[in-house]
Write a structure and sequence with these properties.
This protein is an alpha+beta fold and about 325 residues long. Strands 9-8-5-6-7-10-12-11 form an eight-stranded antiparallel sheet, sandwiched between helices. Strands 1-3-2-4 form a four-stranded mixed sheet, sandwiched between helices. β11 and β12 form a beta hairpin.
């Protein structure tokens, strides 16, 4: 279950990547790290996993352990990394950030300004509008860098919560069409939460809802944005998230996230095996998992392409 990859040119340090994507492992190898991976944690008991990680660290003389994907919230992985002094992030920060109920409790006991940002539990949940935001950040030594803010919107208003998994498929737009003041407020909310939980290193993705009472925190994940948000950011800024994480681990300056143009992910969920609805391939950049991705240089051009794709006959 553990594999070692060949090293690149320069960096003699060894990274242990737990549940990494192939692109992350490749980026680390290309950067010159010695790379050891634990591809999957599902086949272990907690104690077996702890023992396997300790043995791997000793055998390969690991310098840094990075938990990826689902492993980024796995107590056995996080606590073992911290115990061995190999984690760039406190175990408590990752676990807390991923627990929406605990985050809500933390906000509620952190004083009036934070209490006002907490989304009440399900029994008291206020009606949400059909607009929400997702904020991807990359933190290095406690300094939080926002790599992108995406808007989630339900075009027909049929769902009240565009940020809750399972609530349906929203239209994703990046960069989010918001004012400078709105962007500053959303950035401050996301990075303030990371400060509050003590987040020190790595990607995070924070979801924010716009309610009748203002912005409210919905939930967060201690990992990079998932598809299609991650792909919209990559297409528009040119930043490859995995390479940026490795640059951070290398101590190199990060690239600026400067969007060129804009992009959208439209939900077009055809039944399996049904003829595709897309008959305007020049407007579609990619199609996957019920979404089509469009790119454009201006919001007006993106709106025209969106209309063209949605106007295609079923």
């Amino acid at each position: 279950m553990t594999a070692s990859a060949g090293s690149g040119a320069a960096d003699p340090r060894c990274l242990l990547l737990v549940a990494p994507s192939p692109r992350l492992a490749a980026a680390a190898t290309e950067a010159g790290f010695r790379v050891v991976t634990v591809a999957d944690t599902a086949g272990f008991t907690d104690e077996d996993l702890r023992a396997h990680l300790r043995n791997t660290v000793l055998t390969h003389q690991v310098d840094r352990l990075v938990a990826c994907g689902e492993a980024s919230t796995h107590p056995a992985v996080l606590e073992t990394a911290e115990e061995l002094g190999l984690s760039p992030n406190p175990a408590s920060a990752s676990r807390l950030l991923a627990d929406a109920a605990e985050v809500r409790k933390l906000l509620n006991r952190s004083g009036p300004p934070w209490r006002a940002l907490a989304l009440p539990d399900e029994t008291e949940k206020p009606p949400l509008r059909d607009v929400g935001y997702g904020v991807e950040t990359l933190t290095v030594e406690g300094m939080h860098r926002v790599t992108g803010i995406v808007e989630f919107r339900f075009g027909d208003g049929s769902s009240a919560d565009a940020t809750t998994p399972g609530a349906g498929l929203a239209v994703h737009t990046f960069p989010a069409p918001i004012t400078v003041a709105e962007e500053a407020e959303i950035r401050a909310l996301a990075t303030g939460l990371l400060d509050l939980v003590g987040y020190e290193f790595g990607y995070a993705f924070i979801r924010v809802a716009r309610t009748g009472q203002g912005l409210r925190l919905v939930d967060a994940e201690p990992r990079q944005a998932s598809w299609p948000v991650s792909r919209l950011i990559e297409l528009t800024t040119g930043l490859v998230a995995e390479r940026e994480l490795i640059r951070a681990l290398s101590g190199k300056p990060l690239k600026a996230a400067m969007p060129v143009g804009c992009a959208a992910a439209l939900p077009l969920p055809d039944p399996p095996g049904a003829p595709g609805r897309i008959t305007a391939p020049t407007d579609v950049r990619e199609a996957r998992d019920g979404y089509v991705l469009l790119t454009a240089l201006t919001p007006a051009e993106l709106a025209a392409r969106t209309a063209a794709v949605r106007g295609c006959p079923a």
